[in-house]
Design brief:
mainly alpha; 1 helix
Length: 23
């Protein structure tokens, strides 16, 4: 998981958009 850091920032207001599978 290279987006581990991004998941924390995007996880805040990105789980609704479905950022769980970032390109």
């Amino acid at each position: 998981m290279k987006n581990s850091r991004n998941m924390v920032e995007v996880g805040r207001s990105g789980t609704e958009k479905g950022v769980r599978l970032p390109a």
